[in-house]
């Protein structure tokens, strides 16, 4: 049986716990994991952290603390597995990010002066280009998009931010609205054709255009949609709560009855949704 560390406030204790989980007498589930099998959890834990950050309730800080711990556990678990095969250790990970932060912040750790955050970003991009050159990575055109892999809606937003800098963009939100309406018309035409490929194509164009509309309105579409998801989920659950309080079987209700409960739930949650 593994011995629990005495001081659980030290990073070394967490490293020891992870080693025990992966050790000979450790947890069967943890010992079976690979970098590839853990990718879904890296995504899930990151999204749960974002959800905690955006929580406006009184337990926000407690949730953030827990979710940051879950993200940290993923970092340590991947580092431990890499160490087992002699690739790198947690110390190497820490050294790598420390060196990068110092290198990319010469205005803090060296004698470079900057006027504002915009100049910081410009310097950051130049430093990144030099780093890639030193690594022997193939140089891309200065005008290439080079957008990192992200959830699709967020990536569409980032693509728009990049093309905006390259002056290939709509003048204002009204111009994007015209494009959204145009894409919706094309989607309607595709629906009439009953072609799955055409529908998929046009639906993608609608979603991409809506992401650009969010950008022009100064809103992150990924965050906007997360809030919409939470809002719908809360309304739906409240709707079920109301129907059960009336001793109604949801499965037997008519669409009109369900709509009535939906409107009641919206009204009940109206003030909390605006908070």
From TrEMBL:
**Mind telling me which CDD domains this protein's record contains?**
NTP-PPase_MazG_Cterm (cd11529), NTP-PPase_MazG_Nterm (cd11528)
Q: Which domain of life is it from?
A: Bacteria
Instruction: Give its E.C. classification number.
Output: 3.6.1.9
Q: Which InterPro entries match?
A: MazG-like_dom, NTP-PPase_MazG-like_C, NTP-PPase_MazG-like_N, NTP_PyrPHydrolase_MazG, PRib-ATP_PPHydrolase-like
The enzyme class is: hydrolase
Segments forming domain NTP pyrophosphohydrolase MazG-like:
33-109
Q: Could you list the residue ranges forming a coiled coil in this record?
A: 170-200
State any single GO MF term.
Answer: nucleoside triphosphate diphosphatase activity
Q: What UniProt keywords apply to this chain's record, in alphabetical order?
A: Coiled coil, Hydrolase
Q: What is this protein called?
A: Nucleoside triphosphate pyrophosphohydrolase
């Amino acid at each position: 049986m593994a011995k629990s560390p005495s001081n659980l406030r030290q990073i070394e204790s967490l490293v020891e716990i992870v080693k025990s989980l992966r050790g000979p007498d450790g947890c069967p589930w943890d010992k079976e994991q690979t970098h590839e099998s853990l990718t879904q959890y890296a995504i899930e834990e990151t999204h749960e952290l974002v959800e905690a950050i955006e929580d406006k309730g009184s337990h926000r800080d407690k949730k953030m603390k827990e979710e940051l711990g879950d993200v940290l556990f993923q970092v340590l678990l991947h580092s431990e597995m890499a160490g087992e095969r002699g690739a790198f250790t947690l110390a190497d990970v820490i050294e790598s990010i420390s060196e990068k932060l110092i290198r990319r912040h010469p205005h803090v750790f060296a004698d470079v002066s900057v006027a504002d955050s915009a100049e910081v970003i410009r310097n950051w991009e130049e430093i990144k280009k030099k780093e890639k050159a030193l690594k022997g990575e193939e140089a891309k055109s200065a005008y290439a998009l080079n957008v990192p892999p992200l959830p699709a809606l967020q990536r569409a937003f980032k693509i728009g931010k990049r093309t905006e800098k390259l002056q290939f963009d709509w003048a204002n939100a009204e111009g994007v609205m015209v494009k959204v309406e145009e894409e919706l018309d094309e989607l309607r035409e595709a629906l009439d054709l009953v072609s799955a490929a055409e529908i998929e194509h046009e639906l993608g164009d609608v979603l991409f255009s809506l992401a650009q509309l969010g950008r022009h309105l100064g809103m992150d579409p990924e965050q906007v949609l997360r809030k919409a998801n939470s809002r719908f989920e809360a309304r739906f659950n409240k709707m079920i709560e109301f129907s059960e309080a009336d001793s109604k079987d949801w499965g037997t209700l008519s669409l009109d009855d369900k709509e009535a409960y939906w409107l009641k739930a919206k009204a009940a949650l109206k003030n909390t949704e605006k908070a």
